[in-house]
Amino acid sequence: MTGICSGRVAVVTGAGRGLGRAHALALAAEGAKVVVNDLGVGLDGAAETDGPAQRVVDEIRALGGEAVAHGGDIATTDGAASLVTTALEAFGRLDTLVNNAGFLRDRMLVNLDEDDWDAVMRVHLKGHFLPLKHAAEHWRAEAKGGRTPQARVVTTSSGAGLLGSVGQGNYSAAKAGIIGLTLVAAAEMGRYGIQVNAIAPAARTRMTEHTFAETMAAPGEGGFDAMAPENVSPLVVWLGSAASTGVTGRVFEVEGGRITVMEGWRPGPTADKGARWSPAEAGGAALGLLAASETPRPVYGTR
Ligand SMILES: NC(=O)c1ccc[n+]([C@@H]2O[C@H](COP(=O)([O-])OP(=O)(O)OC[C@H]3O[C@@H](n4cnc5c(N)ncnc54)[C@H](O)[C@@H]3O)[C@@H](O)[C@H]2O)c1
């Protein structure tokens, strides 16, 4: 297959279903050879028995592409490191990492167990950090050997990470953390030829099809199926290709036919006394600044 990823090798985590599957198929359709990772867990991260990664590999091969399955847990050192060795052993190189795997344990904060906190932090934050670290180690060695790569990493945040989402305190914190990780990785790794960008997608997958059933519903015959996960993948493919040279450390919201650059925290109204405030003075100043500031976007799930 030829396309904007011809000759490139991509790893996609959590690619057995949902958005990851769509990304893997779209990367293969543009010529990439793909390592399709998926541990095959339930919606809450609990163990399941099926192996969805191999099914997606079979789909890619049936369409004339090249792919191999990887069934490891991306939040472990072995799982993350073997993503890289699998790419190198199967295809001889690694160019693109799409960090996508994850699951939810939604509860209001007062009902949220420590286990639900830890599991969501682990799969999203550590599950982003470890594959990124191992891929970057490989790319840094390439750069030091005089073979500076055109390496690309796409991370997966969420509107919940950008604005917060009621009932998703653990998930929102993890997805906000992924933005911080993305910014630092982009700043640290540019010198090795590595670009790192984040997406905040929205699409109909098992993660959303029940909770947001109405928003996610497919249209009647013939209409544009805005919430199909396949709509998110073209930007991921482009960010994962050499064509995106110069784009790094950015965050894109992607949904249906819409791509939005998210503009991050920046200083708003400010006051400087040039000396220490008293608490009462600090409060008065804060209220004045708030009155002059923009109203924040609402947290998802509030009005
Ligand atoms: N669907 C949406 O609207 C939406 C919105 C914002 C963010 N996201 C994010 O997009 C990503 C993909 O979500 P999705 O909606 O396709 O969900 P999904 O449940 O359909 O797919 C996630 C996949 O990750 C796999 N996985 C989970 N833990 C793993 C691990 N430790 N190692 C390897 N694989 C593992 C699961 O088996 C599953 O196949 C997630 O990070 C999610 O938080 C989705």
TrEMBL record:
Q: Which SMART domains match?
A: PKS_KR
Q: Tell me which UniProt keywords the record has, alphabetically.
A: Oxidoreductase
Q: Name one Pfam family in it.
A: adh_short
Q: Which InterPro entries match?
A: KR_dom, NAD(P)-bd_dom_sf, Peroxisomal_Beta-Oxidation, Sc_DH/Rdtase_CS, SDR_fam
Which GO terms label this protein's molecular function in UniProt? oxidoreductase activity
Is this entry keyworded Lipid biosynthesis? no
Query: Could you tell me which PROSITE patterns the record lists for this protein?
Result: ADH_SHORT
Ketoreductase domain location is 8-202
> Record's family?
Belongs to the short-chain dehydrogenases/reductases (SDR) family.
Its recorded name reads Putative short-chain dehydrogenase/reductase
Which species does this protein come from? Streptomyces antimycoticus
